Fold these 2 entries.
Entry 1:
Amino acid sequence: MTNPYDAAHSQSIKDPDGFWGRVAEDCHWYKKWDKVLDDSRKPFYRWFTGGELNTCYNALDLHVDKGRGGQAALIYDSPVTQTVKAFTYAELRDEVARFAGVLSAQGVAKGDRVVIYMPMIPEALVAMFACARLGAVHSVVFGGFAAPELAVRINDAKPKIIVSASCGIEINRVIPYKPLLDGAIEMASSKPERCIIVQRPMQRAEMKPGRDLDWNEAMAKAKPHDCVPVKATDPLYILYTSGTTGIPKGVVRDNGGHVVALKYTMKAIYNVDAGDVYWAASDVGWVVGHSYIVYAPLFKGCTSILYEGKPVGTPDAGAFWRVISQHGVKCLFTAPTAFRAIKREDPRAELMKEYDLSRFKTLFLAGERLDPDTLRWAQQSLGIPVIDHWWQTETGSAIAGNCIGLHQFPVKEGSATKPAPGWNLQVLNSEKQPVRTGEIGALVAKLPLPPGTLPTLWNNDEGFLKSYLEEFPGYYKTADAGFIDKDGYVFVMSRTDDIINVAGHRLSTGAMEEILADHRDVAECAVLGVDDALKGQVPIGFIVLKAGVTRSNEEILKEVVQMVRDRIGPVASFKTATVVKRLPKTRSGKILRGTIQKIADNKEWKMPATIDDPVSLDEISQALNTIGYAQARKG
Ligand code: COA
Ligand code: AMP
């Protein structure tokens, strides 16, 4: 017997035009589309070609026009500044319209890029929506990235304007943002015409006369700007994410498919309705923040929470329960690492008992593999469904999940449950053939991908083809490996490239290696992600020094750690490196990363038959032991 999930999934695959065309009726269009799915330029599929809409209108004005203007659209909850402030839909619409007026007065128009480098403050959302209102393309850069990473993004996006703030707050430390911004602009070859800066009282920034504008002063003079109709296929934003090299990929999101897909997921996946309170405890700099702090909850008419704090330390491991009970959160979405942090500080969930969590119905987790311990702890302490779902920056919403708004399936530990509607997932082997049920292989999705997924990379169609479509013709390569069991449950096991997931943040070990290799004393290096009880994975580095280097290892190691912090940012969590005489390699010269990783993670390993010099692995084991990694178990 079919259930609503099976029916929706099979319709979405058999008749994507009919399925998504019906879903799209729920959104506001200035002009209806000519085609739902446009496959005239395969493999570049486009959705809703010919249609015109405005993303900001769908998120804000529509609700005001339909009588929801007095409901809270956004609650800014900031334990680090002791602030709780609600914005109704009407208030947020007015703020956004006014900031759109500021941008327009500075010459920003449809198609122009605006980089947003901000902490978790309401102005970040206002700036994003204001861009959408004008049809400008925003590119938000996470605050934990250092100046060179910001510079790379500025060079690629070429923004007319950058919007930033004087500082962020990390628990109780003030992190000045403006020097990082100034440094990045100095490094970048593409210079913005203006910077608009929110001056926060904890640390005011020095302004550059002639270039920098104060947010409040500009707002005071601005006239509100109306929504500008854009094509469904016009870009809404660019979000840079780690690729396999130091050059990040500019994932593009279009306007039409994005509104349609995200609004649909709010009910189908998260089972929330207009008026419900929805909280994604992430950061606006990540895709989860884009999709589920900023856009989707407001498309649906929910109240979204913007939380400037941490799961622990602001002030304690009861922080999430306080927010949930104070604001009546129905659905929370965060990364497993947040729950590991809470569990570590309050293993018996004592702090939970102090709060009324009766309105809290479901916990969704994503961003990294959900370990069974954390799953069970959350299930047992909360007594509500805990749902793992799998997605990527590229996809903008879940590839697989338990779509509880359609049908709730029993949870299987280690599985993200079933492919979301629109996703035709398959598992292929290296010969590009389907594997047998339950066998591990490359997780790929048959084209076309559903609306809301990346149509291409910014100014880089070729890179898009190369990264995602070339290896398995006719399919999108997720670069995750996994399997699908006999009941159709999807299990995501690991990445197939050198991407690692640190506290739910996506990082490239290749990018870190490029930095280490730049150190004047380093001859060779390798960076690997190893298991970490809190962050899931952390990077560790191995370096081989050039012959004749006489400086102390400690000094050099300190320098390489600092280099990664300065060039990528603190978010890389690169704190451990060690010097080795040589790196274990195959006879053809490939570093034996898999084996080193197994040794570090204390998993059983075998001496590879192709190894060039077996002693090198013993040396690696010893080096790992000296930096506190587990004893190796040779099988
Ligand atoms: N601006 C500036 N610096 C930032 C930052 C920001 N927005 N976000 C993080 N950092 C810094 C941190 O202060 C830390 O610096 P440090 O090395 O000087 O201590 C570093 O980047 C690493 O941050 P993080 O990996 O977050 O580790 P943490 O030890 O500070 O916190 C957790 C650990 C688990 C509490 C934290 O990662 C967390 O809250 N995770 C929740 C899940 C999440 O947000 N996932 C995102 C995708 S859904
Ligand atoms: P990001 O682009 O930062 O969202 O990271 C995407 C990557 O995170 C995916 O390719 C996976 O490797 C990993 N990931 C995200 N969600 C899950 C999940 N639920 N289970 C396992 N891995 C996940």
Entry 2:
Amino acid sequence: MNPERRKDPFRTPTGPQLGRRLTRAVVVSVCTALLVSGLIFDVFVYVSQRSALVDDVTAQARIAAENSSAAILFNDVAAAAQTLAGLGSSAAIERADLHDAQGHTVASYVAPGVPTGDKAASARVPREGHVFEDGRLHVKALVREGTREVGSVHLRVSLRPLHDRVATYVAITLLASVLAFGLAFALVFGIRRELDATEQRLDYLAYYDPITGLRNRHAANEQIQRLIETVGRTSDGFALLLLDLDDFKVVNDTLGHSVGDELLRALASRLTQFMRPSDVAFRFGGDEFVILSPRVADATHMQFLGQAAMLAFDEPLKVGVHELRVRGSVGVAQFPGDADSAAGLIRAADSAMYEAKSMGKNTYALFHADMHRGADKRMRMEADLREAISRNELRLVYQPIVDLRTERLIGVEALLRWVHPQLGVISPVEFIPVAEYSGIIVDIGQWVLHTACQQMNAWSAAGHDGFFVAVNVSARQIRRGLKAQIDLALAASGIDPRRLEIEITEHSMVEDIESNVAQLAALRELGIQVAVDDFGTGLSSLAYLKRLPIGKLKIDRTFVKDLPESADDAAITSAIISMARSLSLTVVAEGVETVAQRDYLNSLGCDCAQGYLFSRPVTAEAIVDLLMLRAKVAAAEADPLSAA
Ligand code: C2E
Ligand code: MG
Ligand code: MG
């Protein structure tokens, strides 16, 4: 199922809002601008044409007045009528009247079609000038003889032609606005469709992870906040599951990023299969996923969720041609039980996830308050660890590595111990992860290299030769340039590089395979042996083993523990041994505690072994005792009589 298509109870009401608003804004503003400017223009046209009309009619009235003075003085009605009839050429003039000084009408002109009974004069028309009344323009001009007023000319003009013209302009303006609206709408609609698509894509990128199709960290944070607000209103709590893949980097590094992406996609859809319809999965970071599960009130329910999430890792995932078995660690925390804020809840789930990892990975853990105390303890430990070297609290112990056939000591592994002034002896299992996480491992690692090389030098000086010392090295040390650190230790101690061996765990080996290959090759050139530690616990793959310049594999003790009874472990061990053979690698079995284990490993053709059966990790002096014993036994074997 495509996770994107899942019904989503938390869907954020986002969508292409911006495009729609832009369309509206552009269309409305274009049309309003056009309409307003058109109307302003129309008003301007109306006003200017009206004033032109007034000027024109006033001029005609004056001419008529000038030409009519004689007709009034001599009461020549025919001449007066002729003068007024001359005004008929102007279509707008409806009527013209000539009055004498007493106001009697001397002559009139009435345009064809205008009722003759119409009153020409208006009470409001001044003695001279114009007035607008009843949709008409009235203009009066005085008739003078010298300075004496002898009468007046009164013209009445219809405003209809002017109004009709202006109405046509307004209609054109409106039509142009409608056309512009249509055009603007068509144009903007086209742009809007593109904008909608872009907006949808941006919305998707802001809230979704393009690789898995799940919502992203940003969406998760918003959703957690929203759920917290709902919890404030109702009494239901909710759970947050934080999932982290255990060996994702290995997949990326060995099979390539496209397989890594494919794996994340496959896992995302697998996750959603084990969720309730109301649960939502998010991709929180590189190989981290978050599941938010509403209405979760008690630990039993959380336990159930943790188990359900682990089901996703049960079956191998099919990724292209590969069948990958991924493992993951899950931390579960509940709001409001485990935290009072979004950040606190994520931190709680993170602590629980950390706990799941330290419980051996591929499991889940529910948050409990002690975990924060665990984090505090780690912080205190980190502070103390920074001082451990200068306070001389670190020690090395050495555990023999024997040849399985002869049981002779062929080397020793240097193992770190921290003698804490208050807490006593602390196991590296506890403090190495803290040292790695904080970076202190670089200084500690340098100290271990120096001390082990010095010790080897001391053993040589005392005449004990013919064995190597193996030093564990962490990924961070390799990144910091292992070759330079080793050169320093070799130079300071003066030992033969062939007596030094480096152990690198399978996990760190593949972390940055390209730079590791180059560095390890340089070490091998010096004659330093490189061994893969804890082999079988990572994503063991022949593909990368072949590329690494290594000479040894150390089978992790988890596979040795249940030998020879466990058929699974027997199959794995035997497969590792035959694979190592085909690659000409030496195999060391770790954690050999019983004779049965030793014999079984011997029968499989395992080369070397290390474990409590032969010796626990012991002090450098105790190693000397063992070597002396070895020498004595050897002498006795060579010459039984003199030894006796
Ligand atoms: P490792 O390198 O796999 O070391 C072997 C671990 O198995 C040691 O635990 C050893 O004491 C233990 N062991 C050996 N034989 C037996 C056995 O027969 N039975 C059982 N149950 N355990 C056995 P230790 O010393 O606690 O070290 C744990 C891990 O800490 C080491 O695993 C190694 O990864 C890391 N470590 C130790 N010293 C250093 C160091 O100097 N630098 C770095 N980077 N890591 C170190
Ligand atoms: Mg080791
Ligand atoms: Mg080991």
